[in-house]
């Protein structure tokens, strides 16, 4: 497990990027459409409603409900999948999609009920395990989330998605070394997993180590530069380490990708004011990205990944400095992990 620290501290209250709770649109549904046999689809025979003897309506099909989901009308999808699952109560995929739709429409309790119903039908339904874990993380229940992620990993140990969620759950419990280890294992499986890079960078910022956050965030931005979440988090780390001009550029890139991104707008205003009359420090983001990729290559071959970003010699100095920035650091570390 990784046990390192840094001598750097956060220099200002930084607004970080959106978390999974606020970035649901960024969470891939990754839905496998079931076959007719899987979905338990009806034969389409019209049924007469009780409200009017002359009114005839067809039952809700899986495809109809799924179409509402993919249009982004999650409230409608929730209603339709609710109807579908009443007609097909033993279909795990229907229950799963009900849970996903309810979650995306902000109905966390309803989502958990549906995911649990899917798991009662099929205890090995990994997507229900993982997405219910996401809901639990959003609702500040990391211990419960951890149990579901661990069960998913017992089914498929080499799942990068599950390892990423393991990192989130461990971080939520304050187990930072375990979280870093999980993220490193995920990246050893998929060195292009930009969300794990983002989450690892966030974790370092959460620990008061923005310098350690720079390599993974620089790599994430190099791979997917049009993601406002990554650009904003990179801007936060750059600002905290005194790279003000680069931070300004990152915030501007976040806003170019999403002009409504309030956190990036606030960050840009703040860092622009700080730049005036200040000698800014240059930074080689391409070099940091390459450095991080080389670290990943080492994790691929190592039995136990090692966090070599920052030397242990910085521990003593950082402990004193961090005590003066505890409150501002807590304000910074909200809303920054996704997927």
Notable traits:
single chain, 339 residues, mainly alpha, two-stranded antiparallel sheet, 2 strands, 61% helix
What's this entry about, in short?
The protein is 61% helix and 1% strand. With 339 residues, it is mainly α. The relative contact order is 0.15.
How far is the first residue's CA from the last residue's CA?
23 Å
What ranges have pLDDT less than 50 throughout 5 or more consecutive residues? 1-56, 303-336
Number of helices: 17
Sheet having the most strands: 2 strands, antiparallel
- The value of Rg in angstroms is 23 Å
Look at the structure and give the mean pLDDT.
Answer: 79
Q: Reading side by side through the largest sheet, how are the strands ordered?
A: 1-2
Fraction of residues in H or I helices: 55-70%
Number of strands: 2
In terms of quaternary structure, the protein is: single chain
The geometry reads as: globular
Percentage of residues in DSSP E strands: under 5%
Instruction: List SSEs in N-to-C order.
Output: HEEHHHHHHHHHHHHHHHH
Class computed from helices, strands and strand pairing: mainly alpha
Structural features, described:
The chain has helices at 36-39, 62-70, 74-87, 92-104, 108-121, 126-138, 142-155, 160-172, 176-189, 194-206, 210-223, 228-240, 244-257, 262-275, 285-301, 315-322, 326-332, and strands at 47-48, 56-57. By secondary structure, it is mainly α. It has a two-stranded antiparallel ribbon.
Write the layout of secondary structure elements.
Blueprint: H1 36-39, E1 47-48, E2 56-57, H2 62-70, H3 74-87, H4 92-104, H5 108-121, H6 126-138, H7 142-155, H8 160-172, H9 176-189, H10 194-206, H11 210-223, H12 228-240, H13 244-257, H14 262-275, H15 285-301, H16 315-322, H17 326-332
Antiparallel strand pairs: 1-2
């Amino acid at each position: 497990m990784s046990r390192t620290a840094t001598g750097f501290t956060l220099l200002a209250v930084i607004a970080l990027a959106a978390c999974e709770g606020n970035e649901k649109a960024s969470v891939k549904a990754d839905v496998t459409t079931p076959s007719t046999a899987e979905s338990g689809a009806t034969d389409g025979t019209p049924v007469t409603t009780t409200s009017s003897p002359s009114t005839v309506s067809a039952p809700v099909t899986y495809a109809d409900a799924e179409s509402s989901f993919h249009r982004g009308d999650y409230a409608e999808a929730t209603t339709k999948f609710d109807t579908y699952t009443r007609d097909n109560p033993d279909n795990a995929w229907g229950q799963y999609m009900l849970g996903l739709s309810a979650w995306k429409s902000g109905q966390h309790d309803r989502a958990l009920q549906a995911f649990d119903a899917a798991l009662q039908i099929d205890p090995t339904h990994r997507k229900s395990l993982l997405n219910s874990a996401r809901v639990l993380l959003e609702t500040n229940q990391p211990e419960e989330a951890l149990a579901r992620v661990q069960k998913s990993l017992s089914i498929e140990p080499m799942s990068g998605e599950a390892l990423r969620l393991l990192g989130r759950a461990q971080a939520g419990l304050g187990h930072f070394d375990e979280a870093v280890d999980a993220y490193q294992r995920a990246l050893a499986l998929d060195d292009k997993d930009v969300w794990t890079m983002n989450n690892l960078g966030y974790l370092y910022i959460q620990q008061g180590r923005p310098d350690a956050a720079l390599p993974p965030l620089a790599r994430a931005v190099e791979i997917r530069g049009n993601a406002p979440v990554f650009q904003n988090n990179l801007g936060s780390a750059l600002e905290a380490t005194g790279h003000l001009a680069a931070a300004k550029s990152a915030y501007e890139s976040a806003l170019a990708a999403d002009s409504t991104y309030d956190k990036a707008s606030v960050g840009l205003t703040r860092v622009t004011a700080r730049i005036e009359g200040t000698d800014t420090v240059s930074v080689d983001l391409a070099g940091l990205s390459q450095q991080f990729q080389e670290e990943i290559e080492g994790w691929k071959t190592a039995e136990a990944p090692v966090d070599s970003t920052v030397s242990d010699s910085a521990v003593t100095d950082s402990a004193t400095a961090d005590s003066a920035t505890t409150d501002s650091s807590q304000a910074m570390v909200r809303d920054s992990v996704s997927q």
